[in-house]
Model the fold of this input.
Amino acid sequence: MNNINQTDVWNITLIETAVLNGTFGEVEWERDSVNLLNSTIGETLLFNNTDSSPQEIRLSNLTNSLIFFNNNTLIGSGNLLDNNESINISIPSGNWTYVLNRFNLTEGSIRQNSPLWINSKTDDGKTVTYHLASNLTDAINTTFYPIQTIPCSSTITFTPKDGTSFTPITTCINNFISEVTLTSYNPSNSSNTLTITYSTTQSTGGGSSIQRSSSQTINESIIGNEPDSIYNLSLMCQEVEKFLFNFPNYTSDEYNIFKNDLEIIQGMSIADSLLTFFIEDFEINCPKYVEPTITDKFEDSDYKTEIIIVLTFILLFIVLLVLNRVKKV
Done:
């Protein structure tokens, strides 16, 4: 299903071979020879070395990139979160290189040419189990985005193939899991197992608090206004507010266009689960950006004072108008 095979390479869009540098999305590339052919398949950038000797490419402006040869050998760091900025790659003669920028494993979304995929999933209402596969020859660390609502208090266990089970790092928004960091994701057809056992009592706490599992030790917040926040909360709220104003009954196409634009603005990929939380629970996540209702305004003491002053002036005006008419009579 997700194996890289010879038939994949024919369905490509060729790019002008005489050009030695160019861009694909955010990624900038530079090659040494026109015999190092570049092409694209969907969101994948490819380089095919047709020369008789190794050729080098230089990639820059990368973000969480998955890069590998056509024999599924990993290029760069096995921790995809470290594959940022730039990298130089020497491609052996007759080999292909696949570049998948902003890579993650998202449930319900198939990334073309991805060597990682969800082989199967079971859910009995108490426990959900994902069997994860990889055609790569090396273990990697990457991010998994579930699409279903999973309470953050649930018990999560990741068991790599031939490895020891452990509790992975998770990120939670509004008491629900938004992403899971998978480490030591090993080559296998289905033996990497992510198991989630739902908590017996689900938290119903409101607010826009963002929680982490006890195993997480990184310092930066996922969303906030601090300089080291991964996502900027104010920017997220501003953009979502404009989107909801312009498209109150948005379609899936409008959502996808907005998501792509927002990822460019934020400078990184955004999980559908995260963006959906912001859109569907905008009033909770972005209270400062919600237009107050009439009831809210009357509950505001400053607003009450303003109303009283205005009503007083109106009343005085009416009294003066009546007195003036009485004098004329």
About this structure: Residues 56 and 90 are 4 Å apart (CA to CA).
